[in-house]
Amino acid sequence: MDNAGYTTLTRQAGLLREMQVVAHNIANMSTAGFRAEGVIFAEHVRALEGEGDSLSMASASARSLSPRQGALEQTGSPFHMAIEGEGFFLVATPEGEALTRAGNFVRTDTGELATPDGHLLLDAGGAPVFVPPEATSVMLAQDGTLSADGQPLTQIGLWQPVDPTELERRAGVLMTAASGVEPMPGGTLLQGMVERSNVDPITQIARMIEVQRAYEMGQGFLDSENDRVRDFLRTAGARQ
Length: 240
Hints:
Mean pLDDT: 85
Number of strands: 18
Low-confidence stretches: none
Structural class: alpha+beta
Distance between the termini: 23 Å
Radius of gyration: 25 Å
Shape: elongated
């Protein structure tokens, strides 16, 4: 295969990866706390033999998460929380601590607040948040102070990655950062609300169409190159 074929194949692989990411975004446009993901294309240029000749190949091995805040939806549940502005909730999972923007927490039978998947919410000190099962009134202040029947219980922590550029999706609405997390000062928490997905369906569908057309164009080029090589081999074989 010549250089043009290799270049087109790397481009096709990147477009296929981007199509998968866009499809995943669209599938989660109604998922609370979901953040849209994008693909980052990098160009690699290498000099070839001959003056001024070079080979350029693109790869799409990196991804980025959109920091744009999703719309806030009122639910009325005392255990639902939404972050206004920057920051993340910290939850404990079997694979370790993870960040999330999804605040649709529930109270377990033993009184801990957890995600619908059972991951425990952690407070500002990194401990599980406990709400007595017998509590009849649960209030959340904007600074994160959680009270039950008028008595302060704990403070919900807001966290951020040490290096924001390392933030990546682990699964669903859970995110991690290789350098770890740290408390984020300030921030505003709202009770009885959840943050919806920040996916813009119109933008994502338009991008899906663009990627599909670009992929079809690249596939057409590969098919033409394949026919050209076949014709050459057929002609060369006939002359022998």
